[in-house]
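Internal ticket - ligand job 301, magnesium ion:
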Amino acid sequence: LQEAVRATPETRVARPDPVERINPTPTEADLRAAVNAGDIRVAYQPKARCRSGTLAGFEALARWDHPDHGNIPPDVFVPIAETSGLIDRLTLQVASQALRWLADLPGEVRTGDQNDPVLNRLQLSLNISARTLNNRALFDELAAICRKNRVPLDRVILELTETSAMEDAAVSLNTLTHLRLQGFSLSIDDFGTGYSSMIQLVRMPFSEIKIDKSFVMTAMNSSESRAVVRSVVDLGRSLGLETTAEGVEDEETMRYLKSLSCDIAQGYLISRPLFAEDIPAWYVERRAKLEARRIDALHRL
Ligand code: C2E
Ligand code: MG
Ligand code: MG
Ligand code: MG
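stdout (structure tokens):
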């Protein structure tokens, strides 16, 4: 197929593929300019408790709207940031936007409860690249950003992918222990896609395991996926960790997760990642729906 694509450049000029035109590989210079200009925005995806539906927090996800090429997915630009030395600044930009936003959120949601306890306890998840893991100065800066915004460190969850945390397990153990002692919460992202041994995992001071979306999204059609989801939820429970399922797209999967007593769900069923300006309205609507459901359940008792 690649041969065929390469052999027909004329056709590609004559009938450009719109998808290809929207997402060409951006250059390092483009990304550098965007980071310098502060053009990386943050989208926030909610996480909800499976049992009660209560909002547990949000994951901050970097977004880059390229002036010529449109939205570039983070799976494309984060690796470029990693190889070009921009990742530390990207991480700090995402963190400072997100923490300022989190601190202001209770004031933005004006209707109803003036002092909504849920909003004052929300956690914020930040994705941390393996390349940043050994940079203690960066985590000190992160801690300073949290203090400036009066967000206690245990409300900030640093997400590391399974592969990055286990790359050099001895170094990671050291750094992660340091971060945990500093007060951060730690999460192991995309769990199930790497090959970490249970023994290594048990020694790492994580507070959450996130089951990779590839298993969650296929759980209802694949007994293998269900076996992975079930085992990870069990593992999390045995280790006293919170288990989060990412990629929850439908009610059936949600019911299945509840039946396993999985703690937290994240996915399109609850909401796609949202920009800050859309969250107060989304939250007020969701709170009203939950309240209606609660009253309904009381009537059925
Ligand atoms: P991740 O940390 O595993 O984030 C979850 C990804 O799954 C997000 O993709 C999210 O939009 C997507 N997702 C959530 N729910 C669903 C669902 O129900 N169905 C489907 N199909 N997808 C869902 P996104 O935003 O494109 O991010 C991709 C990856 O890029 C992230 O995976 C993370 O590894 C990385 N990333 C994003 N932002 C940052 C950042 O600020 N720093 C670093 N180092 N990495 C980041
Ligand atoms: Mg993540
Ligand atoms: Mg993930
Ligand atoms: Mg991922």
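Auto-summary: Residues 33 and 39 are 8 Å apart (CA to CA). Confidence is low (pLDDT under 50) at residues 1-14.
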